[in-house]
Design goal:
single chain; globular; 7-stranded mixed β-sheet; 14 helices; alpha/beta; 352 residues
Length: 352
């Protein structure tokens, strides 16, 4: 007898088709996000699970967020498993057995979800072409995005990165930058509604706006970050001339192009906090409380450079606020914080 897996309100069979239990938390988060997106959408929120495998995400989207799902997978065995799982859950839906890029070039969908095993880069162009209102993307090729595999990042995302103390924020901003640039080719702008980095993946949810005027404005939110060996970081949009000479006299490394805009809509995330509980509420709360400015400092990295013992991060944040600066923790690391403070004042607090 086939063993069934229960996840959320769904029950599915796997039978050799790819199913990643490590992504269950991601799908749990998605269901809260999808339910809130559904409220701002239309009665028939058509949703394409473009690389569906067992169909678990699309099935849950139907059962838990009232989406009207469509499923696609290039593998025939996966397609048969999706059909079986739809039957198990009492769902009627169209299932395609096509190359995802070809399908998205042929048809448009209100909401497209790209969740590949590895890089989403090859699907981004077609997804931007097809998506009418929302686009969700997962990336698990972390090395290419965060700077561990610089050449791979250049090949897939047309952006330069090296490993930095804030590498996961670089990664998620590189992914957002790639999607944003591709969308402008079709007179579309994208606006992140929520995004996060977790373990081995990045996940972004975007609102798609069909407007050549708004598409042109996107490049004001795309640009480059400069990192100096002294610890300073700063950034310039693509409309500005990059300044690579640091005030310390050294030349900084320039990373990008990256998305420099907001990583979420605060009003949207506030609603996610209100409707979630437990671990999910903690995740959304951290995102909601984080400053909406690019890039962050890692406390332990600064302390190593200063040869100082790291003070409690909450003490650093509190004292920065007492000096009149904005400061918060981040979603990216338990030892990192965001602030608009100058580096010298950060260092004074750490040294004591």
């Amino acid at each position: 007898m086939t063993e069934l897996i229960s996840e959320g309100r769904a029950r599915i069979a796997v039978d050799g088709v790819f199913y990643n239990p490590r992504m269950r938390l991601c799908r749990d988060i998605d269901m809260i996000v999808f339910s809130e997106l559904r409220k701002s959408g239309v009665n028939r929120h058509s949703y394409l699970d473009a690389l569906a495998a067992t169909g678990i995400r699309g099935i849950r989207a139907c059962l838990e967020a009232e989406f009207t799902p469509f499923f696609n997978d290039v593998d025939r065995k996966a397609v048969e498993m999706i059909k079986q799982n739809l039957q198990l859950n009492g769902i009627e839906a169209e299932v395609f057995n096509r190359d995802a890029v070809s399908l998205m070039r042929d048809r448009s969908f209100f909401h497209i979800d790209i969740d590949p095993f590895g890089s989403p880069a090859q699907f981004v162009d077609a997804a931007c072409y097809s998506a009418r209102r929302f686009l969700s993307v997962t990336a698990t090729d972390i090395a290419a995005l965060c700077g561990s595999a610089t050449v791979s990042g250049l090949r897939k995302y047309s952006a330069y990165a090296i490993k930095t103390p804030f590498m996961h924020e670089v990664g998620i901003r590189m992914l957002l930058g790639k999607v944003a640039r591709e969308a402008t080719k079709y007179d579309k702008a994208v606006q992140p509604v929520v995004s996060w980095a977790k373990e081995h993946y990045y996940r972004i949810h975007l609102r798609v706006i069909f407007s050549s005027k708004e598409a042109g404005k996107v490049y004001g939110k795309i640009g480059y970050i400069m990192q100096c060996g002294c610890g300073r970081i700063w950034w310039n949009s693509m409309y500005e001339t990059p300044e690579t000479l640091c005030s310390c006299g050294e030349k900084a490394v320039m990373l990008g192009p990256l998305w420099l805009g907001e990583l979420e809509r605060k009003d949207f995330v506030e609603k996610l906090v209100e409707r979630s509980e437990g671990k999910l509420k903690d995740i959304f709360s951290r995102i909601y409380e984080e400053l909406n400015i690019p890039f962050h400092y890692d406390l332990h990295n600064i302390c190593r450079r200063l040869r100082a013992a790291p003070p409690p991060i909450e003490k650093v944040i509190r004292e920065l606020r007492e000096l009149g600066y904005a400061a918060s923790r981040t979603r990216f690391s338990g030892t990192s914080f965001k602030t608009d403070a100058i580096l010298e004042d950060i260092e004074k607090i750490i040294i004591g």
